[in-house]
């Protein structure tokens, strides 16, 4: 019984570690995506402003 409890605790700890790593990666990915979208919006706004000034 004790051995089983230890095994469960080990699995829980490993699962938690994996979850934290995945969470970190997903947060990084989310930040990169947001930066990419923000840059795209900035470029689009710049193009619109240029067109507006040109016209």
Helix content: over 70%
Radius of gyration: 24 Å
Helix/sheet category: mainly alpha
Helix and strand sequence: H
Main sheet attributes: strand count, strand direction, barrel closure: none
- Give the overall shape: rod-shaped
Distance between the termini: 79 Å
Number of helices: 1
Low-confidence stretches: none
Q: How many strand elements?
A: 0
Arithmetic mean of pLDDT: 91
The percentage of residues in β strands lies in: under 5%
Brief account:
With 55 residues, this protein is an all-alpha fold. It is built from one helix and no strands. Helices cover 96% and strands 0% of the residues.
Notes on the structure:
With 55 residues, the protein is mainly α. The protein has a domain at 22-55. Helices cover 96% and strands 0% of the residues. It has one helix and no strands. The model has no long low-confidence stretch (mean pLDDT 91).
Write the layout of secondary structure elements.
Elements: H1 2-54
Keyword list:
96% helix; 1 helix; 55 residues; mainly alpha
